[in-house]
Amino acid sequence: VNSFRAYNTYAFGIDFYLPNYSSGIGALVSSDVQGSGLLRSVDAGLQYNYRVRINRDLYFRPGVQLKVVHKELDFTKLVFSENIGVDGTVISNTTPFDVDYDSYTKLDASFSSLFYDKYFWAGFNIDHLIPYNSSFLNQDSKIPMKFVLTGGFNWIYRENRFGDEPDEVITFATLLQHQKEFNQMDIGATWTKSFLQLGLWYR
């Protein structure tokens, strides 16, 4: 199957913090077009989080997201081997199978939590709490849940004598992801001095 062209992705996000309620709300909309209009995707979601103060410096922040996922597939833009003539030109745009529907709209949800203070953070995230069926052919192709663990800490080895913010910091962080048979680990460190950052990461 050939889709001819690459991706065009657009995204817009906005968020607000409500100090009187120790809460944050946000919205994120993204649009993705693949293969010159072959596959179109639109995600629109709302986020909410609440900040819990455990002690003077330690905080806990749980959050949830609800979003709508809409996808459209233009089967007439797919090119199969049956559509190509002996001279290499496309002679038809028919599909070799029956199409049940060319679009769908599904509901999805995520949950996250984060412990943090000035020096460290640790949290986890669960995506696709509603494992919807992503097939256009009415087959069983549910999106599996995705689990993410993250953590890190800041080593402030040189304080700024003329301000409250640290002048030089080395940040160590890791990110672990699991989704069905897929596993990924990212681990690295970043050196920060004022506006300058240098880092090294391994995946």
Attribute tags:
203 residues, mainly beta
Task: Report how far apart the termini are.
Answer: 31 Å
Summed up, the helix count is 0
Spell out the helices and strands N to C: EEEEEEEEEEE
| Number of DSSP strand runs | 11
Please compute the radius of gyration using only Cα atoms: 23 Å
Q: Largest sheet, described in full?
A: 11 strands, antiparallel
| Mean model confidence by pLDDT | 85
Shape estimate: elongated
User: Helicity range of the residues?
Assistant: under 10%
Given the helix and strand composition, which structural class is it?
mainly beta
- Uncertain segments are none
- β-sheet strand percentage: over 45%
Provide an overview of this structure.
The protein has 203 residues and is an all-beta fold. Helix content is 0%, strand content 59%. The chain is built from no helices and 11 strands. The chain has strands at 7-18, 23-34, 39-50, 52-53, 59-73, 103-116, 120-127, 146-158, 168-179, 182-193, 196-202. Strands 1, 2, 3, 4, 5, 6, 7, 8, 9, 10 and 11 form an 11-stranded antiparallel β-sheet that branches. A hairpin with a 2-residue loop joins strand 9 and strand 10 (182-193). It is elongated and about 75 Å long. The mean pLDDT is 85.
Write the layout of secondary structure elements.
Elements: E1 7-18, E2 23-34, E3 39-50, E4 52-53, E5 59-73, E6 103-116, E7 120-127, E8 146-158, E9 168-179, E10 182-193, E11 196-202
Antiparallel strand pairs: 1-2, 2-3, 3-5, 4-5, 5-6, 6-7, 7-8, 8-9, 9-10, 10-11
